[in-house]
Amino acid sequence: MAGLGYQAEDTIFALSTGIERAAIAILRVSGAGSRDILLQICGEVPAARKAVLRKIWKNASIQDDLLDEALVLWFPGPHSYTGEDGFELHLHAGPAIIRAVSDALVNAGARPAEAGEFTKRAFVNGRMDLVEAEGIADLVAAETEGQRKQALAQVEGALSQLYSGWSERLKKILAFQEALIDFPDEDLPPEVEENINQDIQKLQSEMQQHIADGEHGERIRRGVVFAITGPPNAGKSSLLNWLTGREAAIVSSKAGTTRDALEITCILAGIKVTFIDTAGLRETDDEIEAEGVRRALFHVKQADCVLQMFPANELPEDIFPGAVLVGNKADLGKIPQILDGKDVLAISLKTGEGLPELHNFLKSKVEDLTAASVSGAPLLTRARHKAGVQDAMQCLQAAWQQEWPELRGEELRLAMRALGRLTGHVGVEDLLDAIFGQFCIGK
């Protein structure tokens, strides 16, 4: 595949374990020269996929300069992660050892890998498609149980199978369409064209449903964002401290204490959740506080859910669309149960009244915002996937509206190309550096 920014003859290496102090460090090597390099530093190539303890030398042929004693694993291609010959060295994790062995690998003809280069080679060599490769990146970055499960399903091919299944169905539709074009005088049954239209509409419907659930998968991947807003002294900072279980925000009776947005991340219902404490909303001549109000309104627009707080006996004049109303200081006054047709969660951060109910509500809200698809299909995880499915769906819509069979066939081919770009089967060269550049070194 041309234009992918790597030479097939290069042999690459990288540290696949973290740089923190540890007992073991794993150096991973891949490429056509792996066997010769392993012979040079180890003196032999062990049996495939069998861990053996061997001495690692700067030059094993003359046993010059012993570097370490390590576990060695040999992975001959094509049955390896990258599809190429490769090996791993499980070294003692001293920085001096890692540097010395890395230098020995360079002297033997290898070079340090670029970010994501191992997985890029796996993609180029057909070990995985592009969607599965993105799942690898998400799996490495997973911080929560929800992220882990979704990324693992993507690595196992859940999304790829969905998109490939659509492509296969499109291929069959296109075959019937080509038959109508190539054999117009063969008196093909009239239901052939009717079935084509029905199949196109069914595919469109499935794609539309997939896109409609798209935000749920993206939220699992990036996390759910709650913006806490309201007037000064409503208890926003106190709520943030309670939600995160620590004194993250300064709490003061003086209005306007919070000037900037404070973001704190935690785990709720197995999902990464970010709570943003914003400046109190009010008219002010203070330039810094006014900027804080502007930023607060920005976060309100960007958040997945807005917690709009107000203190007892000070009802909000304006309610943000879709906001969850939280009335604080229930110990000081009466808080209405319903306001402008919306339920109100009454709490007291001083006495603890209503806080268990608020916690349960937020947990349910996170679960709703990240719920699985009604159809049971895997969720969209990236904006790139959504754009690709939308392109395919638009082509199907155009195909269904075409009267000329030749034009309809062309739109069907364009829809197949849009799906092919998702999995990396066609036209993705310009995307690859951007996608694999997000990976860590060694993956």
From TrEMBL:
GO CC, one annotated term: cytoplasm
PROSITE patterns, per database record: G_TRME (PS51709)
GO molecular-function term, one example from the UniProt record: GTP binding
Sites where the protein binds Mg(2+): S237, T258
Cofactor binding summary note: Binds 1 potassium ion per subunit.
Annotated residues for binding of (6S)-5-formyl-5,6,7,8-tetrahydrofolate: R28, E88, R127, K443
Biological process according to GO: tRNA methylation; tRNA wobble uridine modification
Major location (coarse): cytoplasm
The UniProt record lists the keyword tRNA processing: yes
Cofactor requirement: K(+)
Domain TrmE-type G: 223-367
Key word Transport present: no
Entry EC number(s): 3.6.-.-
InterPro entries found in the cross-reference section: G_TrmE, GTP-bd, GTP-bd_TrmE_N, GTPase_MnmE, MnmE_dom2, MnmE_helical, P-loop_NTPase, Small_GTP-bd
Localisation: Cytoplasm
Alphabetical keyword list: Cytoplasm, GTP-binding, Hydrolase, Magnesium, Metal-binding, Nucleotide-binding, Potassium, tRNA processing
Pfam family for this entry, one: MMR_HSR1
Protein family (similarity comment): Belongs to the TRAFAC class TrmE-Era-EngA-EngB-Septin-like GTPase superfamily. TrmE GTPase family.
Role of this protein: Exhibits a very high intrinsic GTPase hydrolysis rate. Involved in the addition of a carboxymethylaminomethyl (cmnm) group at the wobble position (U34) of certain tRNAs, forming tRNA-cmnm(5)s(2)U34.
Subunit structure, as described in the record: Homodimer. Heterotetramer of two MnmE and two MnmG subunits.
HAMAP family: GTPase_MnmE (MF_00379)
Name of the molecule in the record: tRNA modification GTPase MnmE
The species this protein was found in: Acetobacter pomorum
GN (gene name): mnmE
